[in-house]
Amino acid sequence: MLLIAAKGLIGKPHITPSGEVSILLSALPEVLSPCLRALPTKLQDAETRIRNRPVDLLVNQESSQLLRTRSSMIQYMREFFLKDDQVEVQTPILAEMAGGAVARPFVTTATEFPTRKITLRIAPELWLKRMVIGGFDRVFEIGPAFRNEGIDLIHNPEFTTCEFYRAYTNLDDLIQLTEDLILGLAKHLKTRCIQRLSSLSIPDLNLDVPFQRLDFISELEKGLKCPLPNLTDPRARDQMIQLFTDHALLLPPNPSLPQLLDKLCASFLEPRCIEPTFIVQHPECMSPLSKSFEHPHIKGQRVAARAELFVKGQEIANMYEEENSPFEQRRKFEEQLQYRTEAPDDDIETDESYLDALTWGLPPVGGWGCGIERLCMMLTGTSRISGVLSFGTLKNVVAKSPSTL
Question: Which residue from 335, 364, 334, 337 is spatially nearest to 348, judged by alpha carbons?
C-alpha cells in the first residue's frame, strides 16, 4: 500500500465522489508546529508591515521575494568578482579609528580596553588597501558598515557595503567594470524574476552603454552661469559662501568647502542624472583618498581621478584611482583637518597607522564601492530602504513592541 506523508498527514491516495484528488487519512494529523493566531488576509500599512516583519513575509509575497532578490544579487556580485580573480577577505569592524569616509562613527568601549575608544567601521577601505600593500592585488569585501547619522527613505545607520581594490586599474577600467556589472545584474535579475519570482516586477532601466558622463566643475559652472573660484586658494571657502549668497542658495550650517561643493552638486548635477550617469573629476578637496591632477581644461583647478555613478538622482557607486604617495596622502589628510576646523561637527582624524603602511609601497590601484541596499532599490524599483532590509531600518529594529494587527 502506498502511504503519503504531507505536512503531518499520513494516508493513501483517494478520489472523492466529485473527482477531486485527496488523501484518505490512516492516522490523525500530527501538529508539527503550533500557530496560535490567524494570519490576516491583508497587511498593507507600511509601518505595520515592517514592525511585524515575520507576518509581512508570510502574507505579502512581494516582501519575501524582494529579500530573495537581494540575496541573488549579492551572489551574482560575488561570482562576478571571483571570476575577475579577486580574493574575498574579511576586515575589522571594530577598531580604534574609523576611516575611509567622512562620517560620524558609532563609539563604544571594549572590556579588554575600558579606557580606550573603540569605533565601528564606517567603511572597509583603508583595511582593504593594506591588503593590497600586503600582496593581494585584487581583493573585495561584502559586509556591514555603520554611520551614526540620520534615517530616511534611502539611508540607514547600519547598511551593507561592497568594495573592491584592483591593482594596476585606472578610472576608465573602473567605469567599464561598473557598466559590465550593472548590465549583468539587471539581466540576471530579470531572468530570475521570470523564472522564480513572479510577484516581483523589475523595472525597465535604460542601460545603454557607455553611460553618460558629466564633468563636475565644467557642468557646475554651466548651471551657475559663472566660474567657480580657484578651489586651492585659502580664500576659496569665503568666496564660495559669497557665491551662495549671490545666487540666493541656502547655506548648510557652518559649512566646510567640501560641504559647499557637495551642496551645489546635489542642487545642479544630481537631478540631471536620471539615466545612468557618471559625475567625474570632482574637486580635489572632496576626495582626500584619491589621486589628483590639474583639470585638463580649467587652469588652476585641481581635481580627483574619481567618478560617481548616479541613477534617478541617487548615488549608486563611487570609484577612484587611489592615492598611493604617503607624502601626498599626509598633505590631504592635513587639509581634511583644516576643513574639520571650519565644520567642527565632522569627526576626522589622521590615520598614522595607514600612512605608515603606505611607506611599504601601495601599487597603482583602482578602488570601487557601493551600498548593497541602494543598488538593490535601483534594480527592483523599491522606494524605501526598509523594504530591502530584513527587519527594516534602525527605527524599526529598536521599536519597543510590534504594531497591533
Answer: 337
d(CA 219, CA 268): 8
Give the pTM: 0.90
253 in Cβ contact with 186 (< 8 Å): no
Q: What is the Cα 396 distance to its own chain's centre? A: 20
> Cell 592615492 sits at which residue?
323
Q: Which residue has the cell 540575496?
A: 71
End-to-end CA distance of the chain: 46
pLDDT confidence tier of residue 259, bands split at 50, 70 and 90: very high
Dist. CA 63–CA 68, nearest whole Å:
9
Of all residues in the chain, the percent with pLDDT exceeding 90 is 74
pLDDT exceeds cutoff 80 at 405: no
Which secondary-structure segment (H or E) carries 328? helix 326-342
pLDDT of residue 194: 65
CB neighbour list of residue 328: distance below 8 Å, 6 or more residues apart? 291, 292
Rounded CA separation 382/314 (Å): 13
Burial class (CB in 10 A: 0-12, 13-18, 19+), 312: middle
Q: pLDDT, tens digit, for every residue of 333-360?
A: 999 888 876 555 545 678 999 999 999 9
**Predicted confidence (pLDDT) per residue in 141-186, tens digit:** 999 999 999 999 999 999 999 999 999 999 999 999 999 999 999 9
**What does the alpha-carbon distance between residue 332 and residue 218 come to, in Å, rounded to a whole number?**
23
Strand partners, 250: none
Q: Which residue has the cell 591593482?
A: 167
In 3D space, the residue among 316, 250, 224, 251 whose CA is nearest the CA of residue 279 turns out to be 316
* DSSP alpha helix (H) spans, 134-215: 171-195
Q: What is the dihedral of CA 177, 178, 181, 186, to 10 degrees?
A: -150
Radius of gyration of the chain (CA): 26
Q: What is the Cα–Cα distance from 62 to 71, expressed in whole angstroms?
A: 14
- Compute the CA torsion angle 344, 349, 350, 354 (nearest 10 deg): -150
Exposure string of 322-346, with b = 16+ CB inside 10 Å and e = fewer, is bbbebeebeebbebbeebbeebeeb
Identify which of 315, 42, 18 has the alpha carbon closest to the alpha carbon of residue 159.
315
